[in-house]
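Lab notebook: predicted structure, single chain.

Context: the supervisor wants predicted structures on file for every construct in the current expression panel, including those that have not yet been purified. This is the next one on the list. No modifications to the sequence; it matches the entry in the shared construct table.
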Amino acid sequence: MNTQAFESYESQVRSYCRNFPAVFTTAKGPFLYDEDGREYIDFFCGAGGLNYGHNPDFIKEKVIQYLQGDGVMHALDMYTAPKRDFIEFYEEEILKPRGLPYKLQFPGPTGTNAVEAALKLARKVKKRQNVFAMMGAFHGMTLGSIALTTDASSRAGAGVPLTNVTHIPAPYMFPELDTVKYMETLLTDDHSGVEKPAALILETVQADGGINPFPVEWLQAVRDLCDRHDILLIVDDIQVGCARTGWFFSFERAGIVPDIVTQSKSIGGYGMPFALVLIKPELDIWEPGEHNGTFRGYQLSMVAAKAGLELMLQERVEEKVRRQEPVIARYMEEIRALDPDRIKTRGIGFVWGIDFWRYDRDGVMSKKVLDICFENGLIVERVGRGNTVVKVFPELLIDEETLCRGLEILKKSVKQARACLKIEEVPNF
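Prediction complete. Output recorded below exactly as produced.
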């Protein structure tokens, strides 16, 4: 394995490659292949950028057809046929059947850019600077997004004060605390010392925060809180949207309608860079060019995105995810049963976490599981506090046989990690 070029000339900032010591060359469906021809089942899926797997034929054919026809590739925000096709399809097949009224903004083609645009717009609409965000959140790596994000290592790279955000305990953190009532107190007590926010932003399932699905009742109560206090509700659906939870939008299970929604990652269909901000029409008070980006008009992404939506609907992916969720849940219970005092599992749809926090707080156990999984031909990643949670994130089109094969590798790897570390006693945490 020749990694000299990376190690000699690529910045130390590289991260994922340190966990997966292989040089990858090809990929198809749920599989990655390295230059030695070894096969890996991919339960990472580009951190959410590959919901429909690697190189799905349906999307690939649309992309090739567009390239062969010398279609426009770069158009800033000019009118183009691919953009018109995408907008019309998205409105007719995604928004209208769900009764959602949104207008579409095309920011720069990244999730963090979508979040930055949402923040700017919310502050412009409400003429307030402060924003409420959840502890455990991850919203991106640009300054506005990092201010929302609570991971200490992410925040450390900012180099400047991260302000104008009030972080609220997530509902899972303190079971005895009614976090909605807590926010109500912050908003109504004239001695709270907290400025009324323009918006409240959240992920309905915290992914990088450790795989924490928020309760339906809590989400509904937050929607009501925002309505009563004239606060915009922003849902960051960048990682767990596009059918990952069993609904196209992760908030659908709660029956709520956010004021602003951010999408990226899998909305690109083929791993293409693409992002959307969905805005209630009455909030669309942008001046022309007030938020822009050179690559907000990358046409190949729009071609792939439309094809990805077509594929999702053709394959009835939402139903498939809900149907196969019990398969993953069963394996998660079997893994938990290996050590029920210390292993905790949680998730929804096709996003699950195995929490090893009770083994150690530095991610030693979770790293051992990750490494052994890789040796056994499975790619998973770690998230959460101290990176103690192993993230289970299969592609949504995976066949059940391959899904179960990957989950068997995962269960075997947890057993091997426990034996390797010779864990016997429960630490006194």
